[in-house]
Amino acid sequence: MPTPLRRRPPFGPRLGTVSLVALCLTLLCTLSPAAAEPRPQPHDSLQQQLDELVRAPGGPPGVIAVLRDGKESRVVRAGVAELGSGRGPEADDHMRIASTAKAFSGAVALALVDRRYLSLDDTLRERLPQLPPAWGSVTLRQLLNHTSGLPDFVEAPAFLKTLLADPQHHFDPRRSLDHVADRQLRFPPGSRYQYSDSDNIAVALMAEAATRVPYERLLEDLVYRPLGLRRTSLPQGYRMPTPHLHGYDMSPPAVPADVSELLSMSGAWATGGMVSTPADLTRFVRGYVAGRLYGRDRDVVREQQRWIPGAASDPAGPGRNDGGLGIFRYTTRCGAVLGHTGNTPGYTQLIVATPDGRRSLTFSATTQINETMKPELLRQLRAVQENFVCSLLGHKG
């Protein structure tokens, strides 16, 4: 069984608004696999908890949570969609979804496994022979559960140099792995868990190689259309659709800075470049967790849910985190839900559902919260998220 490996952040503490660190940690930032579990705090209401999160030092200007049980939805929100506007966050507002995009690449890959275009045991040598021979034995399974050992391209000096020189630079997303093509694997494939943004780039490239169809079209055919997602896309520029939740750098004592369109998402692509809405993410996570996209072969679902104990998402989600194939299990004091988290400049995301897909929670905050930048706020966030999960599962505390 692979064991989690602590990932050392490539940069130090944050230096200020739209700082070098904000740029360098753009795609999915740093992992906190061993983050201490937050102590749940009783509150009078879910609304009060969101209000307190917005008022917290460095907290998000806006938060929106969508709880779904069957056909009934409840939306809880606090703060504003844009500072100075007075407009509250809405379920149809666009936003950057950060690493929850990894669940989409997982959905594409597993749908292709279900259709026999791919196998979980397919290797990079077989599907992508143009990649370094030293990486050849890595399998699709290991890419999806982050045990591949691939070096992370977002830490490559050449990638960071280009990004810092021009944050809106257009990268060729299919050449991202070129930045680390001269590097060996970080460990023998399958021996350890270590979150790597390179994994999901390779997953998308394997999907393209197996089908000879662009990844964007695969998303449309295998995910968007079956689940009725109409406001989800994979742009490669820096502009956001309207209306959107504005994401902010909230680094006191500096003035809040709108970073919604700070960065080109071409560098993130299949690992974190997607745009969606709380409503669409609700539809996605319900269908994804329930296996609606690859349910013809229940073995695919069973393989997806072979958990690596203690393997945390980025940032860590509520409760105990265990990693599967493009999915994580979050075991709270009230029960377990499955899904994914993510963060990028201006946004922090959590999408989860019960294993049958009937109940779901989409929780979006409009600033970046992780263990490296805001450890105390992350602990508060995780405690609030756990209380929302408990409410979703029918528990009061």
Account of the 3D structure:
It is built from eleven helices and 14 strands. An eight-stranded antiparallel β-sheet has the order 3-2-14-13-12-11-10-9, with helices on both faces. The protein has a two-stranded parallel sheet with strand order 1-5. It is 28% helix and 16% strand. The longest helix has 18 residues, at 375-392. It is globular. The chain has helices at 20-24, 46-55, 101-114, 124-127, 140-144, 157-165, 197-211, 215-227, 278-289, 298-304, 375-392; strands at 3-4, 62-69, 72-79, 95-96, 192-193, 248-249, 257-258, 275-276, 308-309, 320-323, 328-332, 335-344, 347-353, 359-365.
Low-confidence stretches: 3-43
Indicate the mean pLDDT.
90
Number of helices: 11
| Protein structure class | alpha+beta
**What's the alpha carbon Rg, rounded to whole Å?**
19 Å
SSE string, helices as H and strands as E: EHHEEEHHHHEHHEEEHHEEEEEEH
Task: Describe the global form.
Answer: globular
Widest sheet: strand ordering? 3-2-14-13-12-11-10-9
Number of strands: 14
Strand content: 15-25%
Q: Describe the biggest sheet?
A: 8 strands, antiparallel
Termini Cα gap: 34 Å
Fraction in helix: 25-40%
